[in-house]
Amino acid sequence: MATKTFTVEELSHFDGQNGQPAYVAIDGNVYDMTNVDAWQGGQHHGNVAGKNLSAAILKSPHGKGVLNKLPLVGQLTE
């Protein structure tokens, strides 16, 4: 179970650039996208890692169903 908490500022450092992991927040949960081929370089269809993408995932063709396959690494605090 995820126990780490991230502020918005802390999350922004996990952008998939310069050797950093690629993390995204969705509905308060932080997921690791680093090993997802479609997220190489920290970007996927105009979305960038290190951000809260709760609104963006609602517009995606796969929706939230894909989240069950991703490593949960923590929680986003506001």
Automatic annotation (TrEMBL):
Xref: InterPro entries: Cyt_B5-like_heme/steroid-bd, Cyt_B5-like_heme/steroid_sf
Domain of life of the source: Bacteria
Gene3D superfamilies the UniProt entry points to: Cytochrome b5-like heme/steroid binding domain
Organism: Levilactobacillus acidifarinae DSM 19394 = JCM 15949
Annotated protein name in UniProt: Cytochrome b5 heme-binding domain-containing protein
Coiled-coil intervals: none
Ranges for domain Cytochrome b5 heme-binding: 6-77
